[in-house]
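Cross-posting from the modeling subforum.

Setting up a comparison between two proteins and wanted a second pair of eyes on the formatting. Protein 1 (sequence, then structure tokens):
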Amino acid sequence: MEFENVNIIGLLNPQSVILSLFLGYLAYCISLVIYRLCFSPIAHIPGSKLTAATGWYETYLDVFKGGQFTFQIEEWHRQYGPIIRITPWEVHVADPDFYEVLFNNKTRYSKIEKLRYRFGLHLSSFDTIDHAHHHLRRSAISPFFAKQKVAGFSPQMQSMADKMVDRLATEYSDRVKPVNMNEAYAAFVSDAINYYTFAISYNFIDYPDFVTPFTTSIRKLAMSLHMAGHFPWLLTLLQTLPESVTQKLNPLMVPVFRFHNEVKAQIIKVISGQNNANKEVKYRTVFHELLQSNLPPDELSIERLKHEAASITGAGIDTTKTTLALATFHILDNPSVLKRLRDELKTRIPRANEPMPPLHELESLHFLNAVVQESLRLAFGITQRLSRISPNGPITYGSYMIPPNVPFSMTSYLQHRDPGIFPDPDVFRPERWLDNPKTRSGKPLSRYLVPFGKGPRMCLGMNFAMAELYIGLSTVFRRLDIELYETGRDAVDMAADYFVPIPNEGTEGVRVMVVGSSA
């Protein structure tokens, strides 16, 4: 029997190769979707079939539609219930009572690897994935943000708030021109955290109209966060390029690189003993102490400390500034709230020009405290969902089991707007925090306020941020008479989630006119 010689090479023409590759890839995609919908370990979790089939829907909503995935998660919960599948590999829960189950001090959950490189600070404790490694790094630095330590710094923080208010009273008084309080507060909190970190102030409060290249870039770079999260190789590529090239490709990086280089220079000075600024203040700064901790040598490299420094000084600026600006808007937009707050402040501080009370006395003012709590509720803190994995065992919610190493998450945006916990959740109502409030089930309302998260990864700078809120708001509203200027609620309501809440594009922030100094 004769066989014809077949020219195999002749059959491998470009068209057939491309067609074969396409059909193979199509078969792979179909089988992957079938697996995800029918055989995945979380196939039993309710949710949209589209987002269970592909992660590209999240990419589309966050990257191409501009931070809209959080709102879609909210809509899915309305449709499918308190536990849903939001990607092929992640489960989201919207149940306020379950927050403390997932995020408590006894849990040993890790972050997901996908989140590690979003900020380009993967050596910081904030972006450390493994629980034990995170605990090592955090335990060395957390004592410097303890409440008593922050209280010792509060006089310096108060002097910065005084400086900000004095400038507002002199440069903007008599309604000379409007001032953007987002910028003023950004300068205040930036100067405070930088001074606390290195005992050196960059004097952002002195910048024209309080606008600084660094704080402006921090906010604008937040808009690229989802791109870095979904396409981490882009950030890796940028980091491999010379700084001069990166700055030409993205001019927003110029002040950030400058800041990182200044941070690195300060760390080198601390190591060499050249930076002795801490001797001029009553406390030792974070990095003077950290360098003398018991951390192993590889945890004290200049690069790692630079990541830690940039994380500390950058992380709290936008969230605290946003909360201060939101509080200012709602106080001025609600005459009864404004009157009650001013009456309380005047009772404790009869003369506007007298020194402000110490921090612990400000914290004891009931209505000021209620204003701070309500502002934190509507500012949300970090608005992107907090994702974790349980490497050692499953998570159980009702009749549903989330297997080990499957990401699960919850979101402060949904927690703070649950009408079962906070009736009329979109209304700014400080009175809801007075007189030890309880929920309908009798549980303390404070249990459900989570702007700083909870558990082992709770925000490191919570005490520092709270001090900034009490000192900043009390100083502004006791010493100044201000009014809103062409500012509506769209300037503070979240329209997009870029890790922090972003208002509608085109709004100019919370702008006010300074009538004059308060009586």
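Protein 2 (same layout):
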Amino acid sequence: MFKIHPSRYFPAVLSGTALVFAFPTFNISMLAWICIVPFLISLYSMDGHTAFRAGLFFGLPYFFGTQSWIYYSVNHYGGVSLLPSLLIVLLLSLYESLYTAIFGFLFAKAVKRTDLPLTIIAAPLWCSLEYIRGYLFSGFPWSLLGYTQYNSLPIIQISDITGVYGVSFLIILVNASLADIYLLKVRQKEKPLFPYWKTLSSVAVTAVLIAATLLYGVYKLRSVGTEKSDTRQVRISIIQGSIEQDRKWNPAYQRKVFNIYKRLTLEALKENPDMVVWPETALPFYFGRDKEQTTELTEFVKKSGVPLLTGTVLVRNRPVTKNRDGNSNNGYMLSNSAVLINSAGKLTYTYDKIHLVPFGEYVPLKSTLFFLDKLVKGIGDYIPGKNYVKAELPWGQFGTIICYEAIFPGLVRKFFRHGGNLIVNITNDAWFGRTSGPYQHFSMSVFRAVENRKPLVRAANTGISGFIDATGKVLKKTGLFKETYITEDILINDDISFYTRFGDMFSFLNIIFTVLLFISLLNKVERTQKYQGGVT
């Protein structure tokens, strides 16, 4: 059994805790550039296994602190009592902390075997693990370091090349440079011939990269959207119904919910929008299946003369199947979808959500692990969509991102590889309550706009709804749990960014570099051992 020495892991806990305050709703973004320094310095003096544990102690407060909002969803709407709800968040945080633990282990192993600056080891390794966390086991790229900078527009413009991971890279680069400076005398004392010029050179390179990033950011902030031949204006209205989650599908409130959206839309129509957007699953009925309400909606849109995009649950016909207990799917399944009704009242576009929420909209491995069916009874059972389809109106094309999909950079870019003008994100963040969840979710939308150089329209049931331009500037937004509407003129374009065209090339290069680095270090260790064996 290993012994835990609290003082030894204090720097890791301190860094992980401080990092929480760099994220919304605290928004002390500057903390991210310095608060990881104690963690990195402490790893230098640790063996691999101790560094692994330090990574856990860093990750637990970091992930638990930024994702504690999950307990509200599980407790308030999942019917799970407080302590088990917190335990669920703790277990998720523990899983995510494995990535920072692996970082600690590999970093500590590498730094002892080379004279390389910490920056060359830390930044590519961290970003490789962040990227993998976003894809492994369905992926959950929440709490990425780069999101702390969503308000720092000059810094985040680089995302149209690197994605959000490039901003994470810069943050680690600065932290590692500061740790490098602190450890320079220590490394020289351990190795009198230690090449200090490598450390000084890496610090200089870091400074140049930050300066270049800022210059690029200022240039993009001034140039994006200024070419009149490439841009045009469109006016959009967002309707925020602010419907409590426990009333949303209550039959007693169905008419009231529908009337709220119709009333707010009539008010918004006075501002002559080119399109109206309702949030995710805004309709309190099954569009197309509930004929009376569907006809009422299409006639309402036809009378308004303005296209309406709305979220809805669609009923899909499927072959009748039975599970091991003999329960049938009754020949239909549900999809979380978006539909566009044009100004003539006709359905012209349907998009089915592709990336569903595990244990929220579907149960992973349910067909293989049959016992899960009983354990998670009551969880939604939706079918995922397969096609990255865009809607088309006279003024241009747009892709619809539904809720959770907005946190996946690689998914969003696929809508725009072959063109498109606007990102529309419809979501229902009522699940998050008045926690930090809605604010963090909104901050990620800023990066999706910058990465793809497309303005983003965000319609959220209970907020935060808003308009974000192609540089990530928030033009207008709503508060939480406010029944309201907002209208804005936004500039759309035909640009295809480097990130949209080539995807996570930067992340792939980080992974390749990290793998080659550690292969090189392993070969170095083997050669040293053979040499020492020969001498002996």
